[in-house]
Amino acid sequence: MLLAACLLPGLTGCGGKAKTAAGQATPVAAVRKWATCMLEFDKAGFMESLTGSKTELRAAEAFMDYLCTLKDFKDAVVKSYGERGWRAFEQEGGAKLSLNLSDNRQQLDKAQWKVSGDSAEGSLPGESKVLHLTRKSGRWCIHAKDILTGGDGDLEKFASTWSRLAALLREKKRRIGQPGVTAESLDKELGANMLPILLGRGQP
What count of other Cβ atoms lies within 10 Å of the Cβ of residue 137? Predict the structure, then answer.
C-alpha cells in the first residue's frame, strides 16, 4: 500500500506501534489485517496497515472515511426505514449505494508472496493486481498506491471526491426520519446531489 513508514499530522501510516506488530509480522498477516480492518470499518487499523507518501495516505484515508460514513448512513437508514428502506438506496435510479465488500481472507494462505529483504510482493487470490509491501521495525505495510484505483491517477482529486461524498452523506443523514422524508425520496435527492461530485464538477 505505501512505500515509506511514516506518521503524519492527522494521518497515521505504517509506524512502529508494538501493539499492532504481531498483526503485521508477515506479508500475509499484514494483508489479512488490512482486509479485516476494511471489512470491519476500522479506520485506524486500516491506516496502520499502509505506508506511502502524504498524498497517497490522504487518498486512502479519504476513501476509508467514506466507507465508514456510508456504514453509519446505512445504519441510520435501517433504523428509521428498515432493510427495505436501505434497498431503495441500492437500486438503480438514485444513489445506488453499496456496502457489499468482497471477503477473500480465507484464500490468503494460498497466495504466493515473493520476499526479498524488507520488500515483498504478491497478489490476492483471484486478483491480477500486485501488492507491494515494505517492512519497517519488524512490521510489514502495504503500499497505499497499490490499493487506490479508479479515476485518472490524480490522487488529490481522488481524495477530494471521496471527502465530498462523505460530507454529503453526513449532511443527508440528518434528514433521515424527518417528517415527509421517505427512503425513496431521500435516495433520489442523494443521487441527484452525488452526480455532480462523481462527474468532477465543482472540485476545489
Answer: 12
> And the C-alpha cell for 20?
499492532
Q: Which residues pair with 131 in a beta bridge?
A: 122
Find, among 170, 176, 179, 165, the residue nearest to 88 by Cα. Answer: 176
Is there a contact between 146 and 26 (Cβ–Cβ < 8 Å)? no
Q: What is the pLDDT of residues 51-107, one digit of tens each?
A: 999 999 999 999 999 999 999 999 999 999 999 999 999 999 999 999 988 888 888
Q: Which three cell numbers stand for residue 183?
A: 427512503
- Nearest Cα residue to 2 out of 67, 66, 46: 46
**Distance linking the first and last C-alpha atoms of the chain:** 26
3-state secondary structure 144-162: HHHHCCCCCCCHHHHHHHH
Question: Residue 14 has what DSSP assignment?
Answer: S
Domain boundaries, the chain: 7-198
Tally of CA atoms within 13 A in the half-sphere of 72 that contains its CB: 16
How many residues appear in the chain? Answer: 204
Q: Which residue blocks in the chain are alpha helix, DSSP H?
A: 18-21, 27-39, 43-48, 54-90, 155-173, 183-198
Encoded amino acid at 42, one letter: D
Extract the residue ranges of the chain whose pLDDT is less than 70. Answer: 1-22, 150-152, 202-204
Per residue in 66-76, pLDDT tens?
999 999 999 99
Greatest pairwise CA separation for the chain in angstroms: 61
